[in-house]
Fold:
Amino acid sequence: MKKLFIILLTIVSVSLFAQTHSLRQTVGQVDKEITLKVKLQYLVYLPPTYKDDNKEWPLVLFLHGAGERGYDLNFVNRNGPTKLVEEGKDFPFIMVSPQCPLGQRWDENELSTLLDEIERIYRVDKSREYITGLSMGGEGTWKLIMLEPDRFAAAAPVCGRTGSSYLDACKLKNLPIWVFHGAMDDVVSLDESVRMVKALEQCGNDVRFTIYPKANHNAWDETYNNEELYKWLLGHSLDKNK
Structure:
């Protein structure tokens, strides 16, 4: 009797399904594998003593703004920590600075693939990976940490659009974040960062928020010239035992 009951139940279920979808709608299914092709050129900065030993190094991913898009890597050096490197500054970490193609915006899946490749090529301490970016790069920072909230030890978005990310802010409740924005910004409204910071705080994130009272959209010069930022980033690491 038990076997008979199961068979009848199955027949009834299939019959009901067919009745539901047979009159005006048909049933379809997509089963297709999509391959992501990633083509990004990038700059890599290695600390002066990188080749002296075999130790692993912290990694900072820097994302430029919309004005540096294109196919000339010299554009990437216009602003931010890459500019400081060209001016002679040394950092105690590997820095990877990709260039977003002209007419595009940062794609978080492409950036994730890039990081996978960098980890394969260089001696990266995976417990000490950090991300920062300015303007469009700040937006890219938010997008990537939303995709992989457990990959980074800390993040520092600078005057970036947040869009609807604040709705999922609790994904980032355990990630150290320092947000920067100019109070007079007429390109990306300060409200973007304010809304996100409030959402993070409601989730229990002890987020840091720096507002430059007299700054317009350029919140990056003061941010990246501040040694405290780099000390703060490097002061965080992931727990490998989790």
About this structure: Residues 37-234 form a domain with the Rossmann fold fold (CATH 3.40.50.1820). The helical segments are 2-21, 81-86, 108-121, 136-147, 190-202, 220-224, 227-234. The radius of gyration is 23 Å. Residues 1-19 have pLDDT under 50 and may be disordered.
